[in-house]
Amino acid sequence: MRVASIEFKARAGEKLADATLQRNLVRVKGKFAAKRAAAMAGFHDFEGLREAGREIRQRTLDDLDVWLGIFERSATAGGATVLWARTPDDINRLVLEIAFRHGVRKIVKSKSMVSEESSLDRAIEAAGLEVIETDLGEYILQINGYEPPSHLVGPALHKSKEEVADLFHRRHKTARKEGIEDLCLEARAVLREHYLTADMGISGGNFFVAETGSVVLVTNEGNATLATGLPRVHVAISGIEKIVPTLEDAATLLRLLPRSATGQPISNYVDVLTGVRGEGEGGVEHMYYILVDAGRTDVLASEVREALRCIRCGACMNHCPVYQSIGGHPYGWVYPGPIGSILTPMYAGLENAHPLPAASTLCNQCGVVCPVKIPLPDLQRKLRERTFERRLAPWSERAALRLWSWVAARPALYGASMRVVARLLRIWGGRERRIRRLPPGGGWTAGRDLPAPDGRTFREQYAARRRAGGKPR
Amino acid sequence: MRVGLVVTCLVDLMRPGIGWAAVDLLERAGAEVVVPATQTCCGQPGWNGGDRAGAAALARKLIAEFEGCDWIVAPSGSCVGMIRVHYPTLLADDATWSERARSAAARTRELTQFLVDELGFDAVPGRHDGTVTYHDCCAGLRELGVKSQPRRLLAKVSGLELTEMAEPESCCGFGGAFSVKFGEIAAHIAERKCAQIAETGAGAVVMGDLGCMLNVEGRLRRRGDASTRVLHVAEVLAGRED
C-alpha cells in the first residue's frame, strides 16, 4: 500500500472538516471504550492478565528465532508447508505461486492486515484471478474501490450504515436496504456463493502456536471458519512476531484480545487450525503458512522492539484523543493510531512517516489500556529523537527547540527574555487579557485564544519582594 | 524541612500567582520554601521534541540547583513527571549524573501529592463559593498517580462543591508542542473537553497543570464562554484565585 503518512497534517485537517466522519467517530468512540471498560470491570484481575500477556509476548520475542524454528517443525509435521516472506512483494509472489500450483481461479479471503502491507488483493487481480474479501468490513472497503482500512478491528468503522446501504445498492444492484440486519443478510447471501465456489482461502493469523504448528483465528462473523474450511487450499499469512509458544499461552492471550478489542469475554468464533486433513477427516487438502518479516527483524533489533508485542486489538486507537478526532485514514498506511505511529515509521521508513510519532499528546491513554503493556508514548519519544537527529522535521521546529534549550541554560538571559515576552504578551492581550491571533503561534490561535499573562514574571516578583526585605510573600 | 519549589517556566511567564499559591500552601504546611533564582525550565520540551542533549543539559542544571533540598515540589504533574519519571532514563548512561538524577527523582513530588501523601496536610485556607469540576491532567494522573489528593484537598475548601465531568481522565489535547504543531487537532480535542465541562454546569474547572489550563481556557473563550473560570488547584486551595 502506498505510504501517505507524510501528508498526515493536511489529511487530518480534511477529516476534522468532514461532518459525516465526525458523527461516525463519536458513535465508535462510545462503543469501544465503554465496552472495554465494562469487560475489564467484570474480570477479577485484569491487571494481572495484562502482565501475563506482556510476559508471554516478550518472552517469545526474546527467543523468536527459536520459536519460529519449533513452529516450522510442528507445522511441517502436521502436513503444512511453511514459507518465509522477507519483503511485502514476497507475500504476493508466494501466494500467486501457490495459486498457480493448485489451479486456483477464485480466492476467498478472511481479514489479514499483513496482506494490506503488500496490497495482495490487487496483485491477485492483476494476475487474472478473482479474490473476495469475506470480513464484512473488508468486503465493504473492497467493493468501494479498495478504500484503505481505518481501524485494526473494524476496518470500515469510519462508515455509517447509510453509506453502506448506498454502496450495496449501487454495487449489488439490489433494492436499497435500511436496517443493519438486512444489510448483513444481503452481504451474507453474496458471500455464501463465493465460499462454495472458491478454490483457495487466505486468512491472517492472530497467533501461530509453536508447540502444535497451529494458527489461531479470531472473528465475530465466522467468515474465517468458512473461508479456511470450504476451499481445497488454505494459506495463512501473518507476521513472524505472531508466534506464541503453547496453546496455553494462546488461551491466556485469547482472554485479553477480545476484551481489549470489543469488550467481549470471547469472540463469537475462535478457529484453531492444524495441518491438512487425514484419512476420513475434515479440513483442507493443502495448507501453507506465509510468515512475513517485512521489517520485523529490524524492529526486533531496534529501540522500539516492544511494539512487536502488539496483538492488534485496537484499544490504543479506541482510547486515543487524536484518533478520536481524525479517524484512521490520516495515518496514511495499514496501521493507524498510536501503534501505527510506531509501526509505520519502522516498516515504511521514518523519512516517510515522521509526522506520526509527533502527532501525539503523549497522554498515555494508549499505554494504560494496551493489553500487552507497550509503552507507546516512550516509543513515540524515541522516534522523535531519531527525527530530530536526522533533521527530518521542518528546520524551524528544530531551531525553536535548540534556541529554547540554549536560552534556558543561561538564567540571566532567560530571565531577561521572559520579562520581555511577558510584557509583550500582556500588551498584545489588551484589556480583555486574551490573545486571539499570534503571528508566531498561529497553530495555537487557529482554534483557541491564548490567555494573556500578568506582565511580570514570578522570578521578577519574587526577587522584588526579597529586595523589599523580609520574607518574600 | 527544606522544600525546593520548581516554579515551572509556564507559571513563571504566564501565571505567577500559581507560584505564590504554592509557596503559601507549602509554608502553611510547615515547610521552609526555597526558590532557586537560577531555575528556568525542566527540559521537557527538548525531551518530548527529540532534543535529548538539550534536555539532558537542563536536567543536570535543575538537579544541581535543588541538591540542597529535602524535597523538590512543583505545581505541575507534567514537570514533576519529567523529573521523577524521565530524568533517571534521560541520564541513565551518564556515569556522573545517573545517581544524582535518581536521588532527585526520589525526592520530587507534585504539589497536592506532597501535601497529602507526605505531610498529611489538609488545613487549606481557600474559600470558593460555588461548584467546580476537576480535570485530571494526563502526566499527573498516569505518570504519578495524582487522582485522590487534589479531590481530598478541594473537599476541605469551604463553600466548594465538586461535580465530576463525564470523562475527567481524558486528555484536553494540550501535549506541549503538539498544541501548536497540530493546533487544529488540539483545538478539536479541547472542544470535547470544554463540552464536558459545560455539561456539568460548574462555574469553574480546576486542574493541576498550567499548560492544560491555557489550552482549556483558550478553547472556552474561543467557543464563546466568557464566564467559566479556569483555575489551578493551588490557587483554589490557597484562596488566591485572582
Task: Describe the structure in your own words.
- The complex is a heterodimer of chains A (473) and B (242).
- Chain A is an alpha/beta fold and 473 residues long.
- Chain A has 3 domains: 1-42 and 312-393, no CATH class; 48-294, NagB/RpiA/CoA transferase-like (Rossmann fold), CATH 3.40.50.10420; 396-467, no CATH class.
- Helix content of chain A is 53%, strand content 11%.
- In chain A, the strands form 3 sheets. Chain A has a 6-stranded parallel sheet with strand order 1-10-7-4-2-3, with helices on both faces.
- In chain A, a hairpin with a 4-residue loop joins strand 5 and strand 6.
- In chain A, helix 3 (46-62) crosses helix 12.
- The radius of gyration of chain A is 26 Å and the shape is elongated.
- Chain A starts with 7 loop residues before the first helix and ends in a 6-residue tail after the last helix.
- Chain B has helices at residues 9-14, 16-28, 44-49, 52-65, 77-90, 98-106, 111-118, 138-144, 148-154, 178-181, 183-200, 210-222, 233-238; strands at residues 2-5, 32-34, 71-74, 108-110, 127-134, 158-162, 204-207, 229-232.
- The model of chain B has no long low-confidence stretch (mean pLDDT 97).
- Chain B has 2 domains: 2-118; 127-238, 3-Layer(aba) Sandwich (Rossmann fold), CATH 3.40.50.
- In chain B, the strands form 2 sheets. Chain B has a 4-stranded parallel sheet with strand order 2-1-3-4, with helices on both faces. In chain B, strands 6-5-7-8 form a 4-stranded parallel sheet.
- At the A-B interface, helix 1, helix 15, helix 19, helix 20 and helix 21 of A face helix 1, helix 2, helix 3, helix 4 and helix 8 of B.
